[in-house]
Specification:
Elements (H helix, E strand, L loop, with lengths): L2 H67 L7 H19 L5 H7 L1 H13 L5 H20 L7 H17 L2
């Protein structure tokens, strides 16, 4: 074996021995930071879904309570005001959730809730149908909260963006 060949590798091996721990620290820091960012996003997403569920449940309970008490002598005009406030709060919460706004729009949650509340207020559906639709919407929101959103890449992402752009052009 040639001694000169080993001598040529000695300096790079020593340098690698000095540099390798720093490379390891940097890679570990990068991976840890990426994981923490993902965990933070997931936590914020769950908080947004909790706020949406709480607002919709509060609105539903106020509507149901006023509807039941409107048949009795316990009904007061302040109750109607409370229902309107709760409904407005639920729509506000549905619209101002930053981390899940796209998911809510793609899932049609706002449109579904608006349709249910409007149809019930106009007496086109009865309380059993309203309760059933509320339960379906509640299950849908819980399912959306528990399942992370799909992250489309490549051709599928391009195709979805193209279809969304076409839909946006059709709006008046």
């Amino acid at each position: 074996m040639d001694v000169r060949l080993l001598h040529g590798f000695a300096l790079p091996l020593v340098l690698w021995g000095v540099v390798a721990p720093f490379v390891g620290i940097y890679v570990g820091h990068y991976l840890s930071r990426a994981w923490q960012r993902e965990q933070w996003f997931r936590d914020k997403r769950y908080e947004d879904y909790q706020a949406v569920l709480s607002a919709i449940v509060a609105s539903y309970m106020a509507i149901a309570r006023v509807d039941m008490e409107s048949l009795t002598s316990l009904f007061t005009p302040e109750m109607l005001h409370e229902v309107e406030v709760k409904k407005a709060e639920s729509f506000r919460v549905l619209r101002d959730r930053i981390f899940i706004a796209e998911e809510l729009e793609l899932g049609g949650v706002l449109a579904e809730w608006d349709t249910n509340v409007t149809n019930y207020a106009m007496h086109t559906i009865d309380e059993r149908i309203f309760a059933g639709r509320f339960s379906e919407l509640n299950r849908k929101l819980v399912r959306m909260a528990l399942n992370p959103p799909k992250r489309y890449r490549g051709f599928r992402l391009w195709r979805m963006n193209r279809q969304l752009a076409k839909l946006m052009q059709r709006r008046p």
